Amino acid sequence: MPRLVAALLALARTAAADLPCAAKPETCVPIKTATGDLMMPAVALGTWRGSYGDCADNDYSCVRAKAKASVGDWLDLGGRHIDGANDYRTQVEIGEAVAGADRDPSATGVAASADCAASPYYDPGTKVRQETWKAMELLVKLGKAVAVGISDYNATHIEETLEVAEVPVALHQVEWNPKKHDEDMLKLCQKHGIQLQAWSPLGGAEGSVTLKWSLQRGVAVVTGTDNKDHMASDLDLFGFALGYYDEVAAISALQ
């Protein structure tokens, strides 16, 4: 769902926070923090209600139960990046699944992104965006978060944020898939060292090739499923590569 928000990326605050990436660096992407680069798992599990097709509209009891079970399965399979937001109403269940897992989250380096701003339905203006960013920087300075980022900003919003930023903009989450992707936004993020992350990375399509295309373009992905076999497939995207001059180019030209 398109949102004009600032998003908080909170990683386990420990020297071992990037252990999964240390073991399998090819499965991770770098993000910038106030103290240097940190590796982040490139594939995240989303917990939006649209991930759970057998839950009726607005049946958040079903959504919450599915989210908790899905996060548990994700962790069991080795997934270490979970995407959540206040709008999803699944953050409590994410926490319960992580706390209930048979492992120490601080030792395995669980990352979670969380919505940390206001309504998605209007443009709050430059001043509010900049003030929201400064408030999020305070979370970093207080040691409550390691890295902070943005979601669904346009180029002007990014430049406005960079004007006041003292902490790096680590990540920008946007809709990105073969049928809808902004090449100029990717270039802008690359210019400023901002990691682009895709919500709705399939865009209605199916298959690992679609996700692999994003990863080979340098874009991290947020997938959404409660099917454990699909999760395993999503985590197994690093054993093959697409041809850059035929397959990647052809997929990029679909929109």
UniProtKB/TrEMBL annotation:
Keywords: Signal. InterPro entries: AKR, NAD(P)_OxRdtase_dom_sf, NADP_OxRdtase_dom. Residues 1-17 form the signal peptide. It comes from the Eukaryota. It holds the Pfam family Aldo_ket_red. Residues 129-204 form the NADP-dependent oxidoreductase domain. PANTHER family: ALDO/KETO REDUCTASE (PTHR11732). This is Aldo-keto reductase. It comes from Aureococcus anophagefferens (Harmful bloom alga).
